[in-house]
Amino acid sequence: MTTIANNLQKVLGQMAQACQGAGRAPASVALLAVSKTFGPEAVHSAALAGQRAFGENYIQEAVEKMAALRALAPELAATLEWHCIGPIQSNKTRLVAEHFDWAQTVDRLKIAQRLSDQRPAHLPPLMVCIQVNVDGGATKSGVAPEEAVALAEAVARLPRLVLRGVLSIPDDAPDFEAQRALHARAAAIFERIKAQGFAGLERFDTLSMGMTGDLEAAIAAGSTLVRVGRGIFGARTYS
Ligand SMILES: *Cc1c(COP(=O)(O)O)cnc(C)c1O
Predict the structure, then answer these.
(1) What is the tens place of the pLDDT at every residue in 54-111?
(2) pLDDT of residue 138
(3) Residues with beta carbon inside 6 Å of ligand 1?
(4) Given pLDDT bands bounded at 50, 70 and 90, which one contains residue 238?
(5) What local confidence, expressed as pLDDT, does residue 128 receive?
(6) Which of 133, 151, 223, 237 has its CB 3.0 to 4.6 Å from that of 142, i.e. a possible disulfide?
(7) In this predicted structure, what is the pLDDT of residue 237?
(8) CA dihedral 1, 223, 64, 239 (to 10 degrees)
(9) How far apart are CA 143 and CA 162, in angstroms?
(10) Pocket perturbation via mutation, ligand 1, pick of 129, 211, 219 by most ligand atoms within 8 A of CB
(11) What is the mean pLDDT of residues 212-226?
């Protein structure tokens, strides 16, 4: 088994154990493999080991990686699902709309509108999550909790998007309970949006939270999608 395949098994085991500890069904939490900074060979290894959903932060890097994978393993590449989990600037919305299946980091209506307008007609609608800022840090991405419902309602009306859920990236917290408390804030926002019952919430089912260092706490707080990079691919080096 390759290191990546081995790591994937370990992470899936960790997730299953966290589900058991939280009294949740193992199938209620999915794994997004975060492949930023790693090459197409790493994604290929993970895909051969059965992983299908990949998350990327840097849009240009991701688009090049997708093309490399299509050249390397066309049939396998066609089965993969790509999630944008990095900041989306206005000048990058077209690339996201044309190449990704999901955009999880929508925090402004203007960006959502551009994604909807630019989603090519031959592709299914783009799946989106609203990014919420649960720490209140003014410099962080994400909509403020008190503005999340209004943004969700506006995004849900856009014709070429499907509102799937909420993403959060809380600051590092010192221990399990502190991590869980931050994740619980995002879970509360997810539930508040769901309770509004407006049109366009039919597929609102995704609470994207938890990474290598805090996936157990995120699962305890209700995460349905953990985003794991280092735990699968190893330490990242930035050039
Ligand atoms: C990098 C990143 C991850 C993965 O983090 P790890 O600590 O490597 O698991 C998850 N989510 C987002 C938004 C990221 O930027």
Answers:
(1) 999 999 999 999 999 999 999 999 999 999 999 999 999 999 999 999 999 999 999 9
(2) 64
(3) 34, 36, 57, 85, 169, 211-213, 227-231
(4) confident
(5) 98
(6) 133
(7) 87
(8) -80
(9) 18
(10) 211
(11) 98
53: which strand partners?
Answer: 81
Domains of the chain, CATH where assigned: 3-13+29-233 (3.20.20.10)
Mutational pocket test of ligand 1: of 227, 230, 232, the residue with most ligand atoms within 8 Å of the beta carbon: 227
Residue 88: closest CA among 139, 136, 131, 121: 131
- How far lies 15's CA from each of 78, 127, 168, 204, 225, in Å? 26, 24, 18, 22, 10
DSSP string for the chain = --HHHHHHHHHHHHHHHHHHHTT--GGG-EEEEE-TTS-HHHHHHHHHTT--EEEES-HHHHHHHHHHHHHH-HHHHTT-EEEE-S---GGGHHHHHHH-SEEEEE-SHHHHHHHHHHS-TTSPPEEEEEEE-SS--TTSSSB-GGGHHHHHHHHHT-TTEEEEEEEE-PPP-SSHHHHHHHHHHHHHHHHHHHHH--TT-TT--EEE---TTTHHHHHHTT-SEEEESHHHH------
The verdict on pTM exceeding 0.90 is yes
105 with 86: CB under 8 angstroms?
yes
How many CB atoms neighbour CB 180 within 10 A?
A: 20
149-177 confidence digits (pLDDT tens): 999 999 999 999 999 999 999 999 999 99
